[in-house]
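Re-running Heme utilization protein to confirm reproducibility after the cluster update. Everything else is unchanged from the original entry.
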Amino acid sequence: LTTGSIAAMSTDQVVALTSNQAATLSTAQVAALSTNDVAAMETADFAALKTASIAAMSTGQTGALTTDQIVALTTAQAGALTSAQVVGMSTNAVAALETADLAQIKTAAIAALGTAQIAALTTNETASLSTAQIAALTTNQIANGLTTDQVVSLS
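Result of re-run:
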């Protein structure tokens, strides 16, 4: 399939892709999918995408990811996300990141999260933050985002 033919696919056709087919999509082909197409992908099919393809997704595409798709990210895929992609995710999507995945998120992405996204993290997630990620938190994130339980989990 060409990138053009991928872009012309209906959402139903994208949903009908198998995991094996999704795994063969190039970065350009994944980029050609609409935001709705990406959000509609079956979780197993989404998880089969190449790490480079996920890293190259638009912020619109990553912003539309479902919590099931977020949970399905491998640690490598989560670590490949850009700061803009992470910041563009919904509060629920950020909260759905597995602790091992959250630990792989770039420090700059953690520093750019909104206070609502920070507040949505579980105490296990905040406890999994690296020293560099904790140091990158802004005064606003600490004062207006972290809950008392989250602060306690950092120690």
